[in-house]
Design goal:
The complex is a heterodimer of chains A (about 500) and B (about 325). Chain A contains 24 helices and two strands. Chain A is globular and about 65 Å long. Chain A has one domain. In chain A, a hairpin with a 6-residue loop joins strand 1 and strand 2. The relative contact order of chain A is 0.18. Helices cover about 75% and strands about 0% of the residues of chain A. Chain A is mainly alpha-helical and about 500 residues long. Chain B has about 325 residues and is of the alpha/beta class. Chain B has two domains: about 160 residues, D-Maltodextrin-Binding Protein, domain 2 (3-Layer(aba) Sandwich); about 120 residues, D-Maltodextrin-Binding Protein, domain 2 (3-Layer(aba) Sandwich). Chain B is built from eleven helices and twelve strands. In chain B, strand 1, helix 2 and strand 2 form a beta-alpha-beta unit. In chain B, helix 4 packs parallel to helix 11. Chain B is globular. The chains are: A mainly alpha (about 500), B alpha/beta (about 325). Chains A and B meet through helix 3, strand 1, helix 16 and helix 22 of A and helix 2, strand 2, helix 3, helix 4 and strand 7 of B.
């Protein structure tokens, strides 16, 4: 097969000591970036982009440069899970769903297991995505071209639908939380009309509510407030501190193969389309909860609940590079920065990149395999180290977390206003917890609300602007149909039960 | 004593004058890190240009202090412009512009104007090209516009980046000139627009060369005309046998519309001429590097690069042009 040959050539390019050292450096740096909330992969890569410029001017240097930057990205994908699990603070947007079960696991003293599951699933998701990129990228590129505004809206609808009903509270509370999220997402500039909305003349509100700041506040600060109220405790002391936990968890993981496969598929699709890693992780979690046998217990600390979002997020994050390479469309914010990097280095992403810069492309693809292996080794060996952080008494770690949160909120837009905003969201998070409102729908609506709105209104702008566009072709029709089915499943299943019940009585 | 002080300061002044005449090296230089603000998100055209500049300055040691690129894209760039407007007298902050320098305050009413800032220099002008899918039967811009007219108002979709910004303004100018009517669909980025055109979700776009070139070379899109009053000068073969120079101007193609986008540098208000001069010279050095020249050619930029009064005049004229088009299209914010 021609692909294997090209891939081998790619390995020859990527496997130099220099490149391997760059991978190690990139992954380590990426993990740090992923750990710091606020300083996301996109920011981290953007900051380091100029440093690679000189490197990229040497022969074969562009490959080394992309290896360094993409490994930062892999590192950030791995690292995002760490603080989600340990402190309930998502380091990256795509690790919000990881907190749902990861944090309860850590509270039960199984932080090591949760981390191992997260890292291993990330690796598997990435591996599936890379294999996909290696062998069927042209086919996938064509598939991505099918996506116009109605298709994108259907994808977002599918994400929301897959997620609805996972909150335990009353449906009313879920709706309130979700609507709050939509309202917050609407603040700022409106893509379709180019007008400012809901800013009330405050210049600070021009940029809208950044999802990261909301998440840092709602989850991180909210959790700390709650812990303060409930009293200090050394809840991490039970955490096991040797590498055996990795092997023990690995024994458990094969049980969840169905979830892994499903999440990989969801992740790859969302990355290619490109919908992004964040919706992928939410959708995978939602689907796992609905389809798994233990679905009811999700949210109380199930390893499967960590496997689903992490596999999907990493699969999506990795496959997001595919539309970037083949179409010149970034599949994620980080991919957008990498795309800029390619242009600055004098390469032209697009359909001809595979032909004209085969060395570069296959070097990059080979480095995806290697980089993820390096990444997995780095993070797994650190599992005991990370888990031992929980042994530090809360009275010491809490101020540290507060400071890190504040720095994180500040870095998002280098704005001090955001730090105050984070605190406000912290209080909101505390109130939500106290009143038993679910936060996940709010977060989901905040991150996808404006994108879904844009896609919907773009669909409606056409000359044939009617709801029929969502059923106009088999692709969008299927997605919309499945979404509606998922959305109304609780009602449908109840109706079915009633009908059956009657039949039963009648008979 | 008073006398002596006067005499002393007079002497000092004399010495200083003599010194500055002899050694022009005492000219102003940044004393701390320079913030390069991009009033748009990471990964877009302005961001690429800023980060390339940062890379070039670093590589060739053109400045003693370092430079950081900061994205402030909130409110269609208003966040970035307001930041520089508020930094009156701060010589360590520069900003690169898109057309949102004009369009954002006009469309949203956010209070800032280029006159609040100090013009430094123009770096280049970004071109716009009318693109259609390769399967589109139209061979020239004229054919295409006729087909749009024939289809009837609102039947043809023009995709572009953002709303009430450059892409939509060009669409409006095109409509005004030709009488054709498009349905304008705003997207968030130029790359997405090009892909939407390849996937036939829209009928045409006015992408920058750099945003659509990959799809042109792959044979998926074809350019009809460039919205400038002269053809692009680049004669190297880009797509098959064609070069940028082979694309006719829209005027030649019978659709007399032109529009270029300013890629220029501004500083905060209230800075000294010395400080402005430093950046004018710095960017001149950047423009002379081979890396910059290659970038210009890859992106088929119009390399006009005015400075000083000519630059300010150009900006003032561009503002008038935008005001006219925005008013006509009904895009101005209600006062």
């Amino acid at each position: 097969m021609q692909e294997i040959q090209s891939l081998m050539a790619g390995f020859a390019v990527a496997m130099t000591w220099f490149n391997l050292a760059l991978m190690l450096a990139g992954v380590t740096l990426g993990v740090l970036i992923g750990v710091l909330p606020g300083l996301g992969g996109a920011n981290g890569v953007a900051i380091l982009l100029p440093l690679t410029f000189t490197l990229s001017q040497t022969p074969g240097g562009a490959t080394s440069a992309i290896i360094l930057l993409s490994c930062i990205y892999w590192g950030a994908l791995f690292g995002g899970a760490i603080t989600s699990i340990l402190f309930n603070i998502p380091g990256e947007p795509w690790s919000v769903a990881t907190t749902f079960d990861g944090y309860p696991l850590a509270q039960k003293g199984r932080a090591g297991a949760a981390l191992t599951a997260a890292f291993t699933s990330s690796f598997i998701g990435a591996l599936v995505a890379v294999i996909l990129i290696t062998f069927i990228s042209p086919v996938i590129a064509r598939f991505a071209l099918q996506f116009g505004p109605p298709e994108f809206f259907a994808v977002y609808l599918l994400t929301f639908s897959a997620f609805v009903g996972m909150a335990k509270g009353t449906p009313f509370k879920t709706v309130v939380a979700m609507m709050t999220g939509f309202a917050l997402a609407a603040v700022g500039i409106d893509t379709v009309t180019g007008q400012l909305r809901l800013t009330f003349g405050f210049t600070e509100l021009l940029k809208g509510f950044d999802f990261l700041i909301a998440v840092i506040g709602l989850f991180g600060i909210g959790e700390i407030l709650l812990t303060i109220e409930e009293g200090l405790e050394f809840r991490g002391t039970k955490a096991k501190l040797d590498l055996r936990v990795v092997l023990d968890t690995w024994k458990e993981l094969p049980k969840y193969w169905k979830t892994s496969v499903r999440s990989s598929v969801v992740g790859c699709l969302m990355g290619i389309v490109p919908g992004g890693a964040t919706p992928a992780s939410f959708m995978a979690y939602g689907l796992a909860k609905k389809m798994s046998r233990d679905g009811e217990e999700f949210g109380t600390g199930k390893v499967e609940g960590v496997v689903a979002p992490e596999t999907a997020a990493h699969a999506a994050g990795t496959s997001a590079l595919l539309p970037m390479l083949t179409l010149g469309v970034p599949g994620s914010p980080t991919a957008a920065v990498l795309l800029g990097g390619l242009l600055i280095w004098g390469l032209q992403p697009g359909p001809l990149l595979f032909v004209e810069n085969a060395d570069f492309v296959w070097g990059l693809i080979a480095s995806m395999y290697l980089g993820n292996i390096v990444g997995l080794i780095v993070v797994l060996t650190c599992v005991p180290l990370f888990a031992s952080i929980l042994r530090i008494p809360f009275s010491i770690i809490a101020p540290v977390i507060l400071v890190i949160c504040a720095i994180g909120a500040y870095t998002v837009h280098t704005s001090i206003f955001d730090v105050w905003l984070m605190l406000v969201f912290g209080v909101l998070g505390y109130v939500f917890k106290k009143l038993d409102y679910p936060m996940a729908p709010l977060v989901l609506a905040l991150v996808l609300g404006d994108r879904a709105e844009d896609a919907f209104r773009q669909s409606m702008l056409g000359p044939d602007g009617s709801l029929a566009v969502f059923f106009a072709n088999p692709l969008v029709g299927t997605m919309t149909g499945v979404s509606l089915l998922l959305l109304f499943w609780p009602l449908i299943s109840r109706a079915l039960a009633i009908v059956r019940g009657r039949n039963g009585r009648g008979g | 004593m008073n006398h002596r002080t006067t005499a002393k300061s007079l002497l000092a002044a004399l010495v200083a004058t003599a010194f500055s005449a002899l050694t022009p090296a005492v000219a102003w230089e940044p004393t701390k890190t320079v913030e390069f603000i991009v009033p748009a998100g990471t990964g877009g055209g302005a961001d690429q240009m800023a980060r390339l500049t940062q890379s070039i300055i670093g590589k060739h040691n053109l400045m003693k202090q370092s430079m950081v690129v900061v994205n402030k894209g909130g409110g269609a760039g208003a966040e970035g412009f307001l930041d520089v407007k508020g930094a009156k007298g701060d010589p360590h902050k520069i900003i690169i512009t898109l057309s949102n320098l004009f369009t954002t305050p006009m469309a949203t009413g956010v209070p800032f104007n280029w006159k609040d800032l100090t013009p430094v220099r123009m770096l280049a002008l970004d071109q716009f090209v009318l693109w259609v899918h390769k399967d589109n039967p139209a061979g020239t811009a004229k054919d295409y516009i006729e087909a749009v007219k024939k289809a009837g108002p609102g039947k043809t979709k023009m995709g572009g980046t953002g709303s009430k910004q450059e892409d939509q303004i060009i669409t409006v100018a095109l409509e005004k000139q030709s009488g054709a009517k498009f349905t304008y669909i705003p997207y968030k980025g130029g790359g997405a627009v090009a892909t939407q055109l390849v996937g036939k979700h829209i009928d045409s776009s006015v992408n920058n060369p750099i945003e659509a070139v990959a799809q042109w070379r792959a044979g998926n899109l074809k350019p009809l005309c460039v919205f400038d009053n002269e053809r692009m000068p680049y004669k190297g073969k880009v797509a098959g046998q064609y070069s940028w120079n082979d694309i006719p101007t829209c005027k030649e193609a019978g659709v007399d519309t032109d529009y270029v986008m300013l890629r220029g540098i501004f500083m905060a208000g209230g800075v000294t001429p010395d400080q402005v001069k430093f950046y004018v010279d710095l960017f001149e050095k950047v423009r002379q590097t081979p890396e910059w020249k290659k970038f210009m050619e890859d992106g088929a930029f119009n390399q006009t690069a005015l400075a000083g009064k000519e630059y300010a005049d150009w900006v003032a004229k561009a503002e008038k042009l935008h005001e006219g088009l925005m008013t006509e299209a009904g895009f101005m914010a209600k006062k």
